[in-house]
């Protein structure tokens, strides 16, 4: 890997085959992606006493605060069959995965400027590795959710083995959106701040701490929530992680469709602009 990286150079005449070249790069540099993910997990908490356990503790602190604030309001007969703490935890995990994944993937190329201007590495590798790191954080954060399911009597259904499906599809979604953001962020750094605001708004438009029956009397609000692609991920994840249920087919279709569309569009746009992205770093 080292010898390969040291001999590769940026070639201004290099032509890419949109989508094909990028997916070939994802496979060719899989070893580097693994190293970047490990670096993210180790360097981020290098001087921390708890280390990587902050990955679990951070969302749990947020969940604890929201549970204290909203449990009496939404947790009593709020139209959910599961304990509110389980419902809330699952919602926060999906929302955090989406927000952190999109922003990390979108800013990864800009943040890796010092590396990219010295040696040739396909820039999209950094966005994908950021998405994989977010997926890894999500997997670690699922540990307390499973513990809560056992402690509250909700149990762990067999459908939990299907959770990797929305996990991988969410990785496709955040990587695709991240590449779109990265393509624009090299021109205007403000794009990253705008993306943070938009991702937060999208998270508020899904029932993470509130319940869907809260807006059942408003067809417009309900349609707005159901049009949010993250909502389909949330419903499917809750159904499989602790519900033991089969999601409605249109939810599965929306989840798969939004993930594939985002990845294809993000990779294609980046492929058409990758030279300008590198030059403007």
Q: How far is it from the N-terminal to the C-terminal residue, by CA? A: 24 Å
Gyration radius over CA: 20 Å
Quaternary structure type: single chain
Q: Tell me, briefly, the overall form.
A: globular
Helix content: over 70%
Number of domains: 1
Number of strands: 0
Helical segment count: 12
Order of helices and strands: HHHHHHHHHHHH
Query: Biggest β-sheet: count, sense, barrel?
Result: none
Could you list the spans in which at least 5 consecutive residues all have pLDDT below 50?
A: 1-7
Structural class: mainly alpha
Overall pLDDT score: 84
Strand % is under 5%
Description of the molecule:
By secondary structure, the protein is an all-alpha fold. It has one domain (about 25-280). Helix content is about 70%, strand content about 0%. The protein has helices spanning about 1-5, 20-30, 30-45, 55-75, 85-110, 115, 125-150, 165-185, 190-205, 220-225, 230-245, 250-280. Helix 5 (about 85-110) packs antiparallel against helix 7 (about 125-150), helix 8 runs antiparallel to helix 9 (about 190-205) and helix 11 packs across helix 12. Mean pLDDT is about 85; it is low at about 1-5.
């Amino acid at each position: 890997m080292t010898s390969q990286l040291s001999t590769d150079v940026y070639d201004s005449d290099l032509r890419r085959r949109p989508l094909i070249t990028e997916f070939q790069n994802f496979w060719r540099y899989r070893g580097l992606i693994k190293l970047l993910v490990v670096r993210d997990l180790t360097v981020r908490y290098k001087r921390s006493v708890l280390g990587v356990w902050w990955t679990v503790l951070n969302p749990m602190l947020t969940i604890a605060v929201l549970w204290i604030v909203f449990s009496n309001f939404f947790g009593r007969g709020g139209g959910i069959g599961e304990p509110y703490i389980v419902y809330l935890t699952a919602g926060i995990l999906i929302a955090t995965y989406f927000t952190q994944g999109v922003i990390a993937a979108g800013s990864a190329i800009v943040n890796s400027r010092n590396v990219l201007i010295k040696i040739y590495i396909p820039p999209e590798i950094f966005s994908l590795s950021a998405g994989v790191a977010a997926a890894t954080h999500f997997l670690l954060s699922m540990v307390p959710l499973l513990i809560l399911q056992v402690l509250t009597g909700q149990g762990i259904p067999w459908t939990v083995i299907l959770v990797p499906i929305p996990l991988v599809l969410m990785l496709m979604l955040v990587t695709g959106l991240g590449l779109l953001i990265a393509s624009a962020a090299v021109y205007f750094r403000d794009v990253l701040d705008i993306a943070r605001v938009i991702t937060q708004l999208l998270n508020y438009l899904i029932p993470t701490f509130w319940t869907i029956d809260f807006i059942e009397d408003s067809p417009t609000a309900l349609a707005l929530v159901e049009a949010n692609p993250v909502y389909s991920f949330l419903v499917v994840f809750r159904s499989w992680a602790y519900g033991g249920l089969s999601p409605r087919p249109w939810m599965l279709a929306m989840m798969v469709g939004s993930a594939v569309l985002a990845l294809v569009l993000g990779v294609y746009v980046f492929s058409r602009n990758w030279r300008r992205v590198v030059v403007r770093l």
